Amino acid sequence: KVVCVTGASGFIASWIVKFLLQHGYTVRATVRDPSNPKKVSHLANLEGAKERLHLFKADLLEEGSFDSVVEGCHGVFHTASPVRFKVNDPQAELIDPAVKGTLNVLKSCAKSPSVDRVVLTSSMSAVAFNRRPKIPETVIDETWFSDPDFCRELELWYTLSKTLSEDAAWKFVNENNIDMIVINPTMVAGPLLQAEINESVEPILNIINGKPFPNKSSGWVDVKDVANAHILAYEIASATGRYCLSERVVHYSELVRILRDLYPTLQIPDK
Ligand code: NDP
């Protein structure tokens, strides 16, 4: 089967591409700049890439950019979205590429009758950020949706971009009769395949380098589990709706302890 992965050079997407190639799929992978070796050489070196990986140039903000990639594909894994927690212009840097980009990819899917399912990488950012009371016993599940006004009030711009893009995606697929499964991971950690460090792994590097860490807890999940969940969501016919992915919730100080136990030779300093 032929499938497409958008934003293929990213942290999570690179693992999705690796596992798809291992499963025997032919993969059409989109990147913004296929001539940049930092973005593509790790993909080209994957097992099966020579025979079954095809790179395409596509940009979330370019209307029609994904048409030729998606045409003829059976599955579409839409992972591309800017992941940045600090921005100057939230609308231009986060919200437009996330929302317009998702609609752009879905419009290409609507034009291609070969597409049997879309798997969208959303986030727990689109699930948990609302005014509902949260106590330690509260279970946050797939029935929860983040509240855009709450995100705006707290200036959680990345969270807002994921909330608005998932909302827009559900509206579009319901109107256009597209089968979509949404994956909502917490913070994702694990080994990098790509050359450049990404936003969710950076806090771990910061701890190793003795930089201050925030006084808060987060859900965490392994990148290989996240990639596998995307593929299961595509392959299991009965999969439906959204799937929250969280292995456990840990405070940053606990992360320090875990890293110290795992890698005693790193001599992680106190902060
Ligand atoms: P990365 O930063 O590693 O990857 C993001 C990808 O998005 C990059 O490959 C980038 O492409 C692409 N992208 C960004 N802007 C554009 C654009 N304008 N046009 C085309 N492509 C663009 O992030 P992750 O792997 O961490 O994230 C992947 C997905 O998972 C995102 O949707 C993110 O919101 C979601 N997610 C991530 C979590 C995490 O903790 N990491 C947690 C929950 C959800 P290029 O390389 O070509 O520039």
From TrEMBL:
Keywords, alphabetical: NADP, Oxidoreductase
CDD domains per UniProt: FR_SDR_e (cd08958)
Alphabetized InterPro entries for the sequence: Epimerase_deHydtase, NAD(P)-bd_dom_sf, NAD(P)_dehydrat-like
Membrane-spanning ranges: none
Record flagged with keyword Oxidoreductase: yes
Domain NAD-dependent epimerase/dehydratase positions: 3-236
One Pfam match: Epimerase
Tagged with keyword Ubl conjugation: no
Family: Belongs to the NAD(P)-dependent epimerase/dehydratase family. Dihydroflavonol-4-reductase subfamily.
PANTHER family in UniProt: CINNAMYL ALCOHOL DEHYDROGENASE (PTHR10366:SF802), NAD DEPENDENT EPIMERASE/DEHYDRATASE (PTHR10366)
Protein name: NAD-dependent epimerase/dehydratase domain-containing protein
Species, as recorded: Sphenostylis stenocarpa
